[in-house]
Amino acid sequence: MKRHLGELELLILISLLRLGDGAYGVLIARDIEEATGRAAALGSIYAALERMESGGLVESELGEATAERGGKAKRYFRLTPAGEARLRSTQRALETMWRGLPELGGVA
């Protein structure tokens, strides 16, 4: 996965960093919605997580099956070191672009 992060992917990676090891799809969606004020479709989140897992940016493991979920287990996601490096690289690039734009609050 050598391409740039899309907005949803960026939000998911930030959410994973915020939530730590207990992050799963519904919790990630809720975190993004609370932080941004807009809904994040669960299907889109899982599709992005699968792409990022294939690209080595996140990893997952299956939790225990629970009766409340009809015997299904939750899949928990976390950032890999490569995912955290990509997230930090994107942060630096955005901060560099933001700098010098006083009309958007950037320091000239």
What would your notes on this structure say?
This protein has 108 residues and is an alpha+beta fold. It has a single domain (7-100), classed as Arc Repressor Mutant, subunit A, CATH 1.10.10.10. Helix content is 52%, strand content 14%. Strands 1-2 form a two-stranded antiparallel ribbon. A hairpin with a 7-residue loop joins strand 1 and strand 2. Helix 1 (7-19) packs across helix 4. The longest helix is centred in the C-terminal third of the chain and has 18 residues, at 81-98. It starts with 6 loop residues before the first helix and ends in a 10-residue tail after the last helix.
Can you lay out the helices and strands and say which pair or pack?
Blueprint: H1 7-19, H2 25-36, H3 42-54, E1 58-65, E2 73-79, H4 81-98
Antiparallel strand pairs: 1-2
Helix pairs in contact: 1-2, 1-4
The gist of it:
With 108 residues, the chain is an alpha+beta fold. It contains 4 helices and 2 strands; from the N terminus they run H-H-H-E-E-H.
Strand content: 5-15%
Q: Please identify, by name, the CATH architecture.
A: Orthogonal Bundle
Shape, principal axes of CA atoms:
elongated
Assembly state of the chains shown: single chain
Can you give the mean pLDDT? 88
Extract low-pLDDT stretches.
Answer: none
User: What percentage of residues falls in helices of 4 or more residues?
Assistant: 40-55%
Tally of helical segments:
4
What is the class in the CATH system? Mainly Alpha
* Major sheet details: 2 strands, antiparallel
Number of domains: 1
Features:
single chain, 108 residues, alpha+beta, Arc Repressor Mutant, subunit A, 4 helices, 52% helix
